[in-house]
Amino acid sequence: MAEKEHINAEKQEKLKKQSEVDAKDEELKNEDPKTLRQKLSNKNQDYVFRLEKELQRQGSLSHEEAVAMTDGLLSEIVIAQRHGQPANGLYLASPKIKAEEMLHPEQKTVETPFWQRAVDGALLYLAIFVGLFGVIALFETKQPQNSQMGILTLASVGILMGVFMVKYNDWVMPKNGQRIGLPKLLLSGLGIAVALFIWIWILSLPAIRVINPVLPGAVDIVIAAIAYGARYLFRQHYHITGSSFASRPQRK
Asked: Which residue from 10, 11, 39 is spatially nearest to 24, judged by alpha carbons?
């Protein structure tokens, strides 16, 4: 009997606390925007500041108009902040993307096709791999040339890694409430790693050297810059936003 009373008391206490939290949230919904701005954390203040700048830039709005638009978000931002969630986590969007959504609420979102994300990721990793080894080659002047990777190896490994990372993101992100099982994920990753090692070994054979030369570091860096520039133009053309490997749906 005493134990039952204790459990009931705990439930009542939890309900009381939850009621107080809900009441505070409701109170914040009706609070003046100026007061709400003073309650923003430093991180959320920065988010709102950058959001207003993006609204002014993208929508050709005045400062006052941008402030008026963000005023409507302040209560939900502060409420989420009270529960430990910053604005970027609340909206799952950067200030740039959130501004776009606010300025064009009628636009529908469609998922970025896999091939576009794959090309985006491939160009990014191509630039990273070739550029990194190019920088290393500039400082490793005493290293024998035949110990370095050829351009075909660097380019193909970078491209394959970029595509794999995009696919990996698809595997680990839940779809229809389901995600790929851990054993299958590990086996897939192991299979890809083995395939990459075999591919690198094939490209390192002396007979392949003629089409897989080791280029000077400066040339590698130029190729990396071209790849990154091509990626930038590709993203601009297809209006790709966000991360290459966790890109958000596009607005059309």
From this structure: 39
Confidence at residue 243, expressed as pLDDT on a 0 to 100 scale: 66
What stretches in the chain show pLDDT beneath 70? 1-23, 107-110, 141-147, 172-181, 242-252
CA dist., res. 109 & res. 123, Å (int): 25
| pLDDT score of 171 | 76
The answer to whether 252 and 110 have CB atoms below 8 angstroms apart is yes
Q: What span, in angstroms and rounded, lies between the C-alpha atoms of 135 and 140?
A: 9
Looking at residue 244, what is its pLDDT?
61
**What's the whole-model pTM score?**
0.57
Burial of 99 (0-12, 13-18, 19+ CB in 10 A): buried
Q: Which residue has the tokens 């609340």?
A: 90
Percent of the chain surpassing pLDDT 70: 77
In 105-231, where do the E strands start and end? 109-110
Spell out where the chain has E strands: 109-110, 250-251
**Bridge partners for 251 per DSSP:** 109
Give exposure, 118-139, as e/b (b: 16+ Cβ within 10 Å): bbbbbbbbbbbbbbebbeebee
SS3 107: coil
Q: Check residue 139 and give its pLDDT.
A: 85
Cα distance between residue 137 and residue 114, in whole Å: 34
